[in-house]
Design a protein that fits this description.
single chain, alpha/beta, Rossmann fold, six-stranded parallel β-sheet, binds uridine-5'-diphosphate-glucuronic acid
Length: 451
């Protein structure tokens, strides 16, 4: 098939390369010339495991190219919209201006004679967006059928998640003829994946849009639930990692997404739950999602807790102390700094006067660019030199494997805050460290109840 992908960020560029890998002829369109040049040269503009190899192989096969020239996508049979929907400044709602301009571009370039083309929305949008896009297309007189086809990929596993998704959802138009055109078109696109028996769900527009935000809200809720339990553990001397393991054996609860720590960040979960709340408000059902306000608040509190923990270890003052932060990306195997808990904690500690050094295996360059005020170094050894407290805030594998004995010789004071609960406390304590986790090793016991 001839496919266009509009928006070539983390989602769009990977989707484009994966569609080419499925044998289609793909053009990625983006307004950013530097990004397009880099992608055409086989150099990914972001860190994503497995993507560099996939990109070069598909460019070499001649099935994939990127452009800033919208006229090149005119004759595609399906146009995937993969632009960002970030949080609007000062508001909870999503910024839909990139979606609107993608639709405007499409209306401008697609012909009127070639028969219907399909717009397949992948961006995370407020419910009601697909309906509105269909109206705009109809008003323009162009023969475009809108399908919402949400994306569930995780950064760090983007290629794997796209080529072996756990489900595929088509949000189809109500009109049966259009629904059939949309279904057939996406079936052809995903033929190879559907052959592998990936569940395929056919829904209306609203359900498909809601599936995506409901999934992210549920994941965010799981994380905030376990972080709330971590607060209880800290207040009582409990251990949240053991608690998570114990409740996780009940497969109605499950063990995944119950890792307590400095909480969720990134370009998706935080802004998606806020946009969902904002949309519920517009729909007059804000009460249904009031709990997400608490999910957000618990999550943000974890960041403050890490800062306060460090402050306490330093006798209540950051001024005059050297602090190392290991990790800046919002999670490992990514260089994405959007709404990163690690970066926010580092920034807070820096603004309270600490001599702060930060490092990250993939995000260091992006960090130097984004936060020139911070002292960024390339290695852990440089970061921890003569520091009074080390905070591990993004659980890169190489940080999980750090040797507490070796590190002990580099720091001034052996204080470690394990902001992702990935170190073995006993090993660190044995090597002379003062260890603090998030919801474990709080060094306190519960106030006894009165009987
Ligand atoms: C998330 C969803 O997992 C994807 O399914 C979805 O497609 C994507 O958003 C999106 O909407 O595009 P992603 O943002 O890449 O994917 O990252 P996650 O793996 O979900 O992690 C999100 C955050 O939660 C990270 O900061 C991570 O460190 C944190 N987290 C995750 C925890 O604090 N505890 C956990 O147990 C799990």
């Amino acid at each position: 098939m001839r496919i266009s992908v509009i928006g070539c960020g983390y989602l769009g560029a990977v989707h484009a390369a994966c569609m080419a890998r499925l044998g289609h002829d793909v053009i990625g369109l983006d307004v950013d010339q530097a990004k397009v040049t880099s992608l055409n040269a086989g150099v990914p503009p972001f860190y994503e495991p497995d993507f560099p190899e996939l990109l070069t192989s598909q460019l070499a096969a001649g099935r994939l190219r990127f452009t800033t020239d919208a006229s090149c996508i005119a004759d595609a049979q399906v146009h995937f919209i993969a632009v960002g929907t970030p949080q609007l400044a000062g508001r909870n709602a999503a910024d839909l201006s990139y979606v609107r301009s993608a639709v405007n571009t499409l209306i401008e370039v697609v012909g009127t004679s070639a028969g219907p083309a399909v717009i397949a929305g992948k961006s995370t949008v407020p419910v009601g967006t697909a309906e509105r896009i269909q109206q705009i297309c109809d008003e323009s007189g162009k023969d475009l059928v809108v399908v919402w086809n949400p994306e569930f990929l995780r950064e760090g596993f983007a290629v794997q998640d796209t080529l072996a998704p756990d489900r595929i959802v088509y949000g189809l138009p109500d009109d049966p003829e259009r629904a059939e055109i949309g279904r057939r078109c996406l079936d052809e696109c995903y033929q190879e994946l559907l052959g592998d028996r990936t569940p395929r769900l056919l829904t209306n527009h609203a359900t498909a849009e809601l599936v995506k935000v409901a999934a992210n809200s549920f994941l965010a809720t799981k994380i905030s639930f376990i972080n709330a339990m971590a607060e209880l553990c800290d207040a009582t001397g409990g251990d949240v990692t053991q608690l998570a393991e114990a409740i996780g054996y009940d497969d109605r609860i499950g063990r995944k997404f119950l890792r307590a720590g400095v909480g969720f960040g990134g370009g998706c979960l935080p802004k998606d739950i806020r946009a969902f709340m904002a949309r519920a408000g517009e729909l007059g059902v804000d009460q249904a999602l009031t709990f997400l306000r608490e999910v957000d608040a618990i999550n943000l509190r974890q960041r403050d807790k890490a800062v306060e923990m460090a402050s306490k270890l330093l006798g209540g003052r950051f001024v005059g102390h050297k602090v190392a932060v290991l990790g800046a990306a919002f999670k490992p195997n990514s260089d994405d700094l959007r709404d990163s808990p690690a970066l926010q904690v580092a920034q807070q500690i820096w603004s309270r006067g600490a001599d702060l050094v930060i490092t990250d295996p993939a995000a260091a360059d992006a960090l130097r660019h984004k936060r020139p005020n911070l002292q960024v170094v390339d290695t852990v050894a440089e970061a921890v030199q003569d520091v009074d407290v080390v905070l591990l805030l993004t659980e890169w594998q190489e940080y999980r494997e750090l040797d507490p004995v070796e590190l002990r010789n580099l720091v001034r004071t052996p204080n470690i805050i394990d902001g992702r609960n990935v170190l073995e406390p006993a090993r660190w304590i044995e090597a002379g460290w003062n260890y603090r986790g998030m919801g474990r090793h709080a060094n306190r016991t519960a106030t006894p109840v009165s009987l």
